[in-house]
Amino acid sequence: MSLLPVPPRRLAAAVTVVLALTAGAAVTVTPATAAPSGVQVAAQTAGATASITVDNDLQVVSAGSSGFLGRKVDANYDSQYFWTSYADGTTKPLDPAYQWYGGGSDVVHARKPTETSYYARDMTAAPNHVWYGVSSSGSLAGVIGRTLVFAARDGSGALTVTMKTTQPGSSQVVTHDVALPTDARVLRAQAGAPGTALIQYVRGTGESTVFSLAAVDLATGQIVETVTTGTVAPRSGLFLSDSHFAWVENPTGLSAQLVTVGRGGGDRTTLPLGTTLSGTSLDAAYLGNWALTAHKGGGLAEYASPQFPLVARSLGSSGTVKLLDHVDSMATAPDGSVLVRGGSTTKGGEGVYRIAPDFHGTPEATLVATTGRATELGLTTATVPSVIDLDANGGRAALSWNLSRYNATGTATLRHVATGKHAQKSFSGTSYEFRMSGGKIDFNWDGLVTQALGETGGFAPAGDYVWELKAKPLNGVGPDLTKSGAFKVLRKTGLHDHTNNGSPDLLARDASGRLFRDDTVRNSYGSEVHSAGREQIGTGWQIYNQLEAVGNIAGGPAADVVARDKDGVLWEYLGKGDGTFAPRTRIGSGWNAYNKITGGSDLTGDGRPDLLATDTSGVLWFYKSTGNYLAPFAARVRVGGGWGIYNQITAVGDIAGSTAGDLVARDTTGVLWLYQGTGTGAFAGRVRIGGGWGSFSHLVGVGDADGNGRNDLYAVSSAGSRLYSGTGSATAPFGPAVYTSVNSDASFFNSIF
User: Fold this and answer.
1) Pairing mode, if any, of strands 210-217 and 196-203?
2) How far apart are CA 170 and CA 621, in angstroms?
3) Do 198 and 142 touch, CB atoms closer than 8 A?
4) Least packed by Cβ within 10 Å: which of 256, 264, 277, 312?
5) C-alpha–C-alpha distance, residues 633 and 623, integer Å
6) Could you tell me which residues come within 8 angstroms of residue 296 by beta carbon, excluding any fewer than 6 positions away?
7) Which value, to the nearest 10 degrees, does the dihedral of the CA atoms of residues 585, 590, 593, 595 take?
8) How far is residue 511's CA from residue 541's CA, in Å, rounded to a whole number?
9) 3-class DSSP state for residue 643?
10) Which residues, other chains included, contact 394 with Cβ-Cβ below 8 Å and sequence gap of 6+?
11) What are the beta bridge partners of residue 536?
């Protein structure tokens, strides 16, 4: 893309070199014996345009008429340089063995780090162009078109400043000495007004330190005029126009101002630039009667600054124009326009922009090359499975999101639609790991959710979920980001699972009839079981003299409860899956004939838990589950007599490794016996488990509480509760007792089930 001509402007320096001068010999000029290899770029055709795309991390080093010099820095801080052509839109690498420099023209310079020679290369020349070598034992102060400015000290310590200019089409290198004070220290050299160099230098130390700017004629090396800037070094923004010296300073440390001094001894004026952060350096460029200022590096900054936007300020009035939202690099082209690598939320996103006057003379930004990215914070990818089975992979799931940049802070939230329970991960671009990831949010979900901040996490219930990503840009550029999506969680409903989250719930009633639910959870680092939080779920339950959690007998979403009142009527409470129950349904009367009722074991292998009851004469009866909530049990079937010797029977599911549910029974001497299910509603002969079980007030077949894939037994006493892990062995079905804090206050309850 050709750059439209604008009125003569200064040539801005694209490279600033801070010197550390050492004593050495004078500058000499030698013909080049070898030239760095590089890809040739076709000459620009007048009026040609190109659609240009560049990498997002490419920075503008120098701007020419036919293209621009760019640089990328890798993770090891090594630089790779590129030349981007306006004519054909290509961005091609330059020889990585060399460091490359530019100063506002199509001529670039290269030097190997191990050599003292600098080679000039005209990027518009034919493929077999000629290179010229410029050798110096001094330090490079700056590059201005074809001119290199060197500073060195002779044997006496006196400063010498030399300008070396390669001539087009010949091997001649013109040398001019610049008569700066010999006790000065050169800070940098850059392009000024056309045909002029601007050299910043300092003299003195301590309280006698004085910083100055010198305008130097490029054709002769003569100092045209100088101006003193003060006892404190200006910030990074300097420029020299046909009419003014100008620089940025921070008089209070928290505010900035642009200082201008008329050429030829003119007046000194100041233009307030607004609040800055402490130590902030503002870059400045000149465009007609406008000054461009910005705090560079705002694109990936981890803080906000009012100086990040590129703003044009009129030097003749109070007018301002915001051009871009942030600037990462900028350089002035030969025609006086300014080439900026930056971004705008309204003009074209991230890319390289040309800043030039419009037809009214007001600066405007035009996109020259795009990176293909938006400036506002965005979500580039979301890796969230549509279905997550939390019974697989140890109850864990991996989700991730990639932001368009890392300098953001926010949260990723997973929320269960029905209950509002959620899991959340915070992220911030201030953390090293997040910066190194480039903005990737890894959410390694442990399958736990909470209802409120600080609450103990419980297992995530099955059902519909939404994920929501909220991110705030740390640099204040662009709006906050909010994105969302949906997924589904699968869980197997457990024996005592009333919350549809795969973990057992324990119900308890106190003397006043209040019903409580403890959802259990195990530690992520072991199998210890504790409560994820107790919740009161009902009142008035004192009307029942028998309560039993019987598993999912009615085909609903979760496990159910049966309750017998004092008149012998048995009632069914269908689990809703959220830890509560639907209104009761009458099953039938005459149930006061039984002194013990238990449920939860699938005794026939049809996938539904069944019910068992012993009558006062010691007969055990089997009630097969139907899955119909209006008539949940088939007619009873006699299992056998002699069960009067037991004061507790508990359906525990399959704990012995067979295909059917089992039953444990405790006799009056405290011995616990195993009855292994046969799959027909009956049981094999009993096997002694062990003695000493008489101290427990409640024995509950809780299902798989410890996550080992086998059903467990939960036992409650006044000394606290214990969990007996299932082993799958018929001769020793339970492991050693493990203390659990669930219902450690068991004395407050008269029924735990």
Assistant:
1) antiparallel
2) 112
3) no
4) 264
5) 6
6) 281, 283, 327, 328, 329, 330
7) 10
8) 9
9) helix
10) none
11) 516
| AA letter at 188 | R
CA 484 to chain centroid, in Å, comes to: 15
Task: Tell me the chain's radius of gyration from C-alpha atoms.
Answer: 41
CA–CA distance, 60 with 696 (Å, rounded to integer): 78
Encoded amino acid at 731, one letter: T
CB-count burial class (<10 Å; 0-12, 13-18, 19+) for 538: middle
Sheet with strand 210-217: strands edge to edge: 185-191, 196-203, 210-217, 223-230
* Residues written for the chain: 753
Residue type, 185: R
On the 0-12 / 13-18 / 19+ scale of CB atoms within 10 A, 513 is middle
The residue type of 221 is G
CA distance 218 to 209: 27
Q: The tokens 């309204």 sit on which residue?
A: 346
Q: Which two tokens stand for residue 391?
A: 């019974």
Q: Are 651 and 701 in contact (CB under 8 A)?
A: yes
Q: Kindly give the pairing relationship between strand 662-667 and strand 238-240.
A: unpaired
Sheet holding 611-615, edge to edge: 594-599, 611-615, 620-623, 637-640
Say how many Å lie between the first and final Cα of the chain, rounded: 79
Cβ neighbours of 293 (radius 10 Å): 23
Identify the burial level of 557 via C-beta atoms within 10 angstroms of its C-beta, where 0-12 means exposed, 13-18 middle and 19 or more buried. Answer: middle
- Residue 260: phi and psi, rounded to 5, are -125, 140
Distance CA 258, CA 237 (A): 9
Q: In sequence order, which residues have a C-beta less than 8 Å from that of residue 120 and are 6 or more positions away?
A: 107, 108, 109, 131, 132, 134, 146, 166
Structure tokens at 313: 């300020």
- Strand partners for 555: none
Gap between the Cα atoms of 497 and 483, Å rounded: 33
Closest among 717, 713, 706, 712 to 744, alpha carbons compared: 717
In 3D space, the residue among 299, 332, 287 whose CA is nearest the CA of residue 16 turns out to be 332
Closest listed residue to residue 545, CA positions, set 528, 531, 523, 562: 562
Give the SS3 label for residue 4.
Answer: coil
Sheet holding 173-178, edge to edge: 139-144, 147-153, 159-166, 173-178
CB atoms within 10 A of CB 386: 8
Residue 722, both tokens:
């214990």
Q: Which residue's entry shows tokens 């010498």? A: 160
> Which amino acid, one-letter code, is at 159?
L
Give the integer Cα–Cα distance in Å for 23 and 142.
19
**Residue 212, strand partner residues:** 201, 228
Q: Are 149 and 199 in contact (CB under 8 A)?
A: yes
Locate 264 and state its tokens: 């030829």
Given a contact cutoff of 8 angstroms between Cβ atoms, the answer to whether 113 and 73 are in contact is no
Give the full edge-to-edge strand order of the sheet including 585-588: 544-551, 560-565, 570-573, 585-588
* Burial of 615: CB neighbours in 10 Å, binned 0-12, 13-18, 19+: middle
Q: How far apart are CA 65 and CA 607, in angstroms?
A: 80
